[in-house]
Amino acid sequence: GSDRTLDRDCTTLSRHVLQQLQSFSPEAQDLSALMNRIALAGKLVARRLSHAGLMEGVLGFTGEVNVQGESVKKMDVYANDVFISVFKQSGLVCRLASEEMEKPYYIPENCPIGRYTLLYDPIDGSSNTDNNLSLGSIFSIRKQEGDDVDETASDLFTPGRNQIAAGYILYGPSTMLVYTIGKGVHSFTLDPSLGEFILTQENIKIPDKGSVYSVNEGNFWQWDESIREYVRYVHRTEGYSARYSGAMVSDIHRVLLQGGVFLYPGTREKPEGKLRLLYETAPLAFVIEQAGGRATTGHMEILDVVAKKLHQRTPLIIGSKQDVAKVESFIQNGH
Ligand code: P6P
């Protein structure tokens, strides 16, 4: 009846977090407030993206190159600043680390009491901005250990299992937010008329096996032979489809819902691959593991990898248990 849908429409993200934790402890309130801030950042980015083609200065490049040597799009800069502004007022976060910043951004008024660190990729797949294709933001929240007075952020160099929250925002035909705080994976859809993310699906479970493999086959000759052998295997095996969008948030969201596997393997030129551990592969691994899937470098679980540098890369094989195991079997036994 209407009260059920009304109840669902009132299941906002912040309320859902408190429901998940069945607690109103200070930590639970913190987490609820943090997720509410992520939602606000997502709304601000979504709004900008929906006007991208209509406003001056949104599309295209800034003419700069970021710390990764990649040309910076105006949307990258805008989205990066959105997260900083949103978390500045939060009082909760002392540091923000992102793909767009060489060093973490410290919020002095929140430090050192700021109990949390936000690690994020503000716009993942920014090459899709100018052609109106889907893209995403990826976030990871960790507790701050110690007061990091030397600003080395070395307390971040611990396994991804230490994340307390992680997820992504998918800017697609609708804007969705998918998150976990270690109690399953839940999705919310932005209702622009309400300006709220409304609960769409609780406790999402990834199928144990899927029919989609998602990898950039343009890199075929850059890969190890074992990855080429895996791709030859799916080419000759009935029932596999290739899907690759250029924005892994979209590709991994599809894998979460339909099953299958997304890969970004190492290449000759980049043996550790292209994706970043702390704010890309680790948060996505947390989500997929919580949904019953797996995420590995090919040799170890992503969530066990300990970063030595802020922008450390890892190869990524992520998705349904059986599909990830199939890729591993080629890497580990060469068949
Ligand atoms: P390639 C986007 O830049 C990104 O980080 C992922 O979202 C995407 O899957 C991948 O890189 C695309 O990289 O080398 O396949 O074009």
UniProtKB/TrEMBL annotation:
<keyword id="KW-0963">Cytoplasm</keyword>
<dbReference type="InterPro" id="IPR000146">
    <property type="entry name" value="FBPase_class-1"/>
</dbReference>
<feature type="binding site">
    <location>
        <position position="123"/>
    </location>
    <ligand>
        <name>Mg(2+) 1</name>
    </ligand>
</feature>
<dbReference type="GO" id="GO:0006094">
    <property type="term" value="P:gluconeogenesis"/>
</dbReference>
<dbReference type="GO" id="GO:0005829">
    <property type="term" value="C:cytosol"/>
</dbReference>
<feature type="binding site">
    <location>
        <begin position="124"/>
        <end position="127"/>
    </location>
    <ligand>
        <name>substrate</name>
    </ligand>
</feature>
<comment type="pathway">
    <text>Carbohydrate biosynthesis; Calvin cycle.</text>
</comment>
<dbReference type="GO" id="GO:0042132">
    <property type="term" value="F:fructose 1,6-bisphosphate 1-phosphatase activity"/>
</dbReference>
<comment type="subunit">
    <text>Homotetramer.</text>
</comment>
<dbReference type="InterPro" id="IPR028343">
    <property type="entry name" value="FBPtase"/>
</dbReference>
<dbReference type="InterPro" id="IPR020548">
    <property type="entry name" value="Fructose_bisphosphatase_AS"/>
</dbReference>
<feature type="binding site">
    <location>
        <position position="121"/>
    </location>
    <ligand>
        <name>Mg(2+) 2</name>
    </ligand>
</feature>
<dbReference type="GO" id="GO:0006000">
    <property type="term" value="P:fructose metabolic process"/>
</dbReference>
<dbReference type="GO" id="GO:0006002">
    <property type="term" value="P:fructose 6-phosphate metabolic process"/>
</dbReference>
<keyword id="KW-0119">Carbohydrate metabolism</keyword>
<dbReference type="Pfam" id="PF18913">
    <property type="entry name" value="FBPase_C"/>
</dbReference>
<dbReference type="GO" id="GO:0019253">
    <property type="term" value="P:reductive pentose-phosphate cycle"/>
</dbReference>
<dbReference type="GO" id="GO:0005986">
    <property type="term" value="P:sucrose biosynthetic process"/>
</dbReference>
<feature type="binding site">
    <location>
        <position position="216"/>
    </location>
    <ligand>
        <name>substrate</name>
    </ligand>
</feature>
<feature type="binding site">
    <location>
        <position position="121"/>
    </location>
    <ligand>
        <name>Mg(2+) 1</name>
    </ligand>
</feature>
<keyword id="KW-0460">Magnesium</keyword>
<keyword id="KW-0113">Calvin cycle</keyword>
<feature type="binding site">
    <location>
        <position position="124"/>
    </location>
    <ligand>
        <name>Mg(2+) 2</name>
    </ligand>
</feature>
<feature type="binding site">
    <location>
        <position position="244"/>
    </location>
    <ligand>
        <name>substrate</name>
    </ligand>
</feature>
<dbReference type="InterPro" id="IPR044015">
    <property type="entry name" value="FBPase_C_dom"/>
</dbReference>
<feature type="binding site">
    <location>
        <position position="280"/>
    </location>
    <ligand>
        <name>Mg(2+) 2</name>
    </ligand>
</feature>
<feature type="domain" description="Fructose-1-6-bisphosphatase class I N-terminal">
    <location>
        <begin position="12"/>
        <end position="202"/>
    </location>
</feature>
<dbReference type="InterPro" id="IPR033391">
    <property type="entry name" value="FBPase_N"/>
</dbReference>
<dbReference type="Pfam" id="PF00316">
    <property type="entry name" value="FBPase"/>
</dbReference>
<keyword id="KW-0479">Metal-binding</keyword>
<feature type="binding site">
    <location>
        <position position="99"/>
    </location>
    <ligand>
        <name>Mg(2+) 1</name>
    </ligand>
</feature>
<dbReference type="GO" id="GO:0030388">
    <property type="term" value="P:fructose 1,6-bisphosphate metabolic process"/>
</dbReference>
<dbReference type="GO" id="GO:0000287">
    <property type="term" value="F:magnesium ion binding"/>
</dbReference>
<keyword id="KW-0378">Hydrolase</keyword>
<feature type="domain" description="Fructose-1-6-bisphosphatase class 1 C-terminal">
    <location>
        <begin position="206"/>
        <end position="331"/>
    </location>
</feature>
<protein>
    <recommendedName>
        <fullName>Fructose-1,6-bisphosphatase class 1</fullName>
        <ecNumber>3.1.3.11</ecNumber>
    </recommendedName>
</protein>
<feature type="binding site">
    <location>
        <position position="274"/>
    </location>
    <ligand>
        <name>substrate</name>
    </ligand>
</feature>
<comment type="similarity">
    <text>Belongs to the FBPase class 1 family.</text>
</comment>
